[in-house]
Amino acid sequence: MTVFVLDAGELIGLENDSRAAWARLHAARRNSDGLIVPTGVIGQVWRGTPQQARLNQALKQCRPIPLDEDTARLAGYLCGRAGTSDVIDAVVAVVAHSAVRHGEASVLTSDPEDISALLAILNSTARVVPV
Prior knowledge:
- The protein has about 130 residues and is an alpha/beta fold.
- Helices cover about 55% and strands about 20% of the residues.
- It has 7 helices and 5 strands; from the N terminus they run βααβααβααβαβ.
- The chain has helices spanning about 10-15, 20-30, 40-45, 55-60, 70-80, 85-100, 110-120, and strands at about 1-5, 30-40, 65, 105-110, 125-130.
- Strands 3-2-1-4-5 form a 5-stranded parallel sheet, sandwiched between helices.
- β4 (about 105-110), α7 and β5 (about 125-130) form a beta-alpha-beta unit.
- α1 packs across α2 (about 20-30).
- The longest helix has 14 residues, at about 70-80.
- The relative contact order is 0.21.
- The model has no long low-confidence stretch (mean pLDDT about 95).
């Protein structure tokens, strides 16, 4: 089975009621070991408005992964190696790479090139699924 890691682009799709995003969410729930979202990704998209009711529904179906010191340091290292400053993308890559230890992991992302480059630095087998 596969763990799915959601990035901000996928959460925005769910918030905007994208049929494709909701279909991916339902399929992943049925056919996976779980849906996870790094808490930094939640911070990127959450504004706490009533218009985010759909996003809130989606987040209730996911397990939040808090940003701990080890993950933060590895994400910072990845940013340095990749020459990027997007720490949250790096956190998504680290979380996906960590999930691989328990089986397969796929990242549902609107930023497949950057996530793929970060995963390559980690020599990760996590899969990138463009959304």
